[in-house]
Amino acid sequence: MAERTRACTACHGEQGRAGPDGYYPRLAGKPAGYLHNQLRNFAQGRRHYELMTRLVDPLTDAYLGEMAQYFANLQLPYPAPTARNAISNERLAKGQQLAKLGDAARGLPACTQCHGVRLTGVQPNVPGLLGLPLDYLNAQLGAWQTGQRRAHGPDCMAEIVRRMPAADLIAVSSWLARQPLPADTRPAAQMPAGPALPEAMRCGSAPELSNAASQPTATGSRP
Q: Which helix (H) or strand (E) holds 191?
């Protein structure tokens, strides 16, 4: 499979460690279900990038699943964060607040509610948010804003981004891109404890998030 995925690593870096330009994201170690869903999204027109579409179009769904599992099994070290964009400490604090606590007034869950307390993702379908380049984070949030990126309905991220002004999106992405990785960078084995997501925030790509146990989280991530 390492030979068969050379077309992937040409952009996403050796062993899927991430491309050097800050736009092509890391593949190594991400949950297999998430990677498979993204390949399906390109194949089925929910995400739009011609190079990816041409790459996956001739491949069977079973083969896409094998590719996803191959990259998911690669446990490789992450580089240190490199974000250096100009942003005030006040805005970074706002980004941290939204990432860890959410915003009850706007009905926004914390990033940790779905992406794990350590923000390294949750098996089998939720990606980590740490270790991603700032340019990539901003590009993906912008793609959800403009409808260029979609997921299986209901699309929770589209709804979350709709409720956040650009300044808050940049605050969150800037804070995430500055965070060091924990010693254990693997996705969590199960979703964080806490109440099920409200109907408006259900996620078609990770339906297991709608079945969380109704108890407070360690980080107080749900209002």
A: none
Tell me the β-bridge partners of 143: none
Report which of 13, 32, 33 is spatially closest to residue 72, judged by C-alpha positions.
Answer: 32
Question: Token pair of 92, please?
Answer: 């970074």
Spatial distance between the Cα atoms of 191 and 212, rounded to a whole number of angstroms:
7
Query: Residue 105: which residues within 8 A CB-CB, separation 6 or more?
Result: none
State how far the Cα of 117 lies from the Cα of 69, in Å rounded to an integer.
24
pTM of the entire predicted model? 0.89
Measured at the CA of 34, the angle between CA 92 and CA 45, to 5 degrees, comes to: 100
Helix, coil or strand: residue 215 = coil
- How far is it, in rounded angstroms, from Cα 78 to Cα 54? 29
In this structure, the dihedral spanned by the alpha carbons of residues 153, 154, 157 and 160, taken in order and rounded to 10 degrees, is 150
β-pair partners for 188: 122
Provide block-wise average pLDDT over 10 residues at a time, the chain (223 residues): 93 92 91 96 92 94 97 95 94 98 93 95 96 93 90 90 96 97 94 78 87 42 33
The owner of tokens 């980004």 is 95
Q: Which among 80, 68, 55 is positioned nearest to 28, based on CA atoms? A: 68
